[in-house]
Amino acid sequence: MHSMTSGNATVELLDLVRALLQGDALTARQWVADAYRAGVDWSGVPRPVGLMEAEMAVAAGIVELLAQRANQPAPAWAANVPPALEPVFLVRAAMTLPRLRRLCEEEGPEPLRKRKILAPPDFLTAA
Q1: Residue 37: CB partners within 8 Å, gap ≥ 6?
Q2: pLDDT (tens digit, 9 = 90+) per residue, 41-65?
Q3: Burial label, 35 (beta-carbon count in 10 A; 0-12, 13-18, 19+)
Q4: Quick check: 58 and 21 in contact, CB under 8 A?
Q5: Residue 5 burial (CB count, 10 A)
Q6: From the centroid of its chain, how far is CA 42?
Q7: What is the pTM of this model?
Q8: What is the SS3 string spanning the chain?
Q9: Is the predicted pLDDT of residue 11 greater than 80, yes or no?
């Protein structure tokens, strides 16, 4: 499943990035729930290897967002990841629904918005 340990986190961030980019919200939410349960140290999450530019922007934005929500520092590598060249929609409906798109652009989580990753404000919060 996911290789996650508390303390020095061995988190397969790649799994989360792929789930998000494939629109697999259920897997993404489960991954986040598992990470919180495992007490992941977000500052120790290793930089993913072999990702394309947009995937890397998603990885950095998501790890910063999750670290922020856990009141932890983000891993140092995330600060050096540039924004995606084109907007990346983590909620497919935002591509076609103007109000949802505007909400994502204006009020989406800052670690995502600054990298052109569009998601609603409550993205990946436990329901």
Answers
A1: none
A2: 999 999 998 899 999 999 999 999 9
A3: buried
A4: yes
A5: 13
A6: 12
A7: 0.88
A8: CCCCCCCCCCCCHHHHHHHHHCCCHHHHHHHHHHHHHHCCCHHHCCCCCCCCHHHHHHHHHHHHHHHHHCCCCCCHHHHHCCCCCCCEECCHHHHCCHHHHHHHHHHCCHHHHCCCEECCCCCCCCC
A9: no
> How far is the CA of 77 from the CAs of 44, 68, 89, 119, in angstroms?
10, 15, 23, 22
Task: Let me know how long the chain is.
Answer: 127
Q: How far is CA 95 from the centre of its chain?
A: 18
Split at pLDDT 50, 70, 90, the class of 125 is confident
Q: How far apart are CA 75 and CA 12, in angstroms?
A: 14
Provide the token pair at 38: 């495992």
Q: Which two tokens stand for residue 116?
A: 């052109």
Nearest to 17 by CA among 27, 7, 5: 27
| Cβ contacts of 58 within 8 Å, gap of 6 or more | 17, 20, 21, 84, 88, 90, 115, 117
